[in-house]
Amino acid sequence: MQPKRLPVIGISANIAKDADGMLPGYRRSYVNEDYIAAIIQNGGVPILLPVNEKKDVLKQQVSLLDGLILSGGSDISPLKYGEEPDVLLGEIIPERDYSDMKILQFAIEKKIPILGICRGLQLLNVYHGGTLYQDNRYHHQEVYKHWQGHGPDIATHHVSLEKDSILYHAYQKENICVNSFHHQSIKKLGDGLKKIAKSKDGIIEGIESTYYPFMVGTQWHPEMLFRKDEGANALFKLFLTEASKGGTL
């Protein structure tokens, strides 16, 4: 009997440039290993999706997938949501914006489960016509520290979850504690999305689709918490369970 086929999960890659060493300025494609470990532990096969601007290549990459994770990283160019850059905008990588938008488009067309993490949540929002605060200091009220100066697996602030949401289904409680590594957040919510999590300062911390079977985003980093947080691991388990059902071509 053949072994059961494991679901293949694509992870959108980031770009890094060597600051010094043998090859200063040299570009590399990468993701943090936590994404990979979380997928493997919960029964999936991770594949890195390197940034590129070849539409045919991106489409064929997605054709191999049973699920997609949009990973964290650089700021999304505000030109993507009709704004000019504010002075507190961080680094942007326009070719990554293009690459991520295209793989998201193809993943939606294939109807595979989609999980957006940090920048990934923001990309889901911008893709659906939403906008971002280019820095949390532009928020209408004073906000908490959302860029923690602590270890990645330390939870530093509370988030409330909406019942009957994907996140509540995973965490099985209304109030959780999360880690935080973002200086941007959702301003205008995109079409076809609903808010399912927020922090006490009003920052939107979780979204899901109103039209798509499994499309969810977290502003925090569950992949950094899954080893010690049952709810974070349950989110990946739920995502992999959905991915194992397969999409449509």
Q: Quick one: how many beta strands?
A: 13
Task: Say what oligomer this is.
Answer: single chain
- Shape descriptor: globular
Estimate what percentage of residues fall within beta strands: 15-25%
What is the share of helical residues?
25-40%
Uncertain regions spanning at least 5 consecutive residues: none
List the strand order in the largest sheet: 4-1-5-6-13-12-11-8-9
> Treating each run of at least 4 consecutive H or I residues as one helix, how many helices?
6
- Mean pLDDT comes to 94
User: How are helices and strands ordered from N to C?
Assistant: EEEHEHEHEHEEHEEEEEH
CATH-defined superfamily: Class I glutamine amidotransferase (GATase) domain
Largest sheet: 9 strands, mixed
Number of domains: 1
Class derived from helix and strand content = alpha/beta
What CATH calls the topology is Rossmann fold
Terminus-to-terminus distance: 27 Å
Measured on Cα atoms, how large is the radius of gyration?
A: 17 Å
Helix-strand blueprint:
Layout: E1 8-12, E2 14-17, E3 27-30, H1 33-41, E4 45-49, H2 55-63, E5 67-70, H3 94-110, E6 114-117, H4 119-127, E7 132-133, E8 157-161, H5 166-171, E9 175-178, E10 185-186, E11 193-199, E12 204-209, E13 215-218, H6 230-243
Parallel strand pairs: 1-4, 1-5, 5-6, 6-13
Antiparallel strand pairs: 2-3, 7-10, 8-9, 8-11, 11-12, 12-13
Helix pairs in contact: 2-3
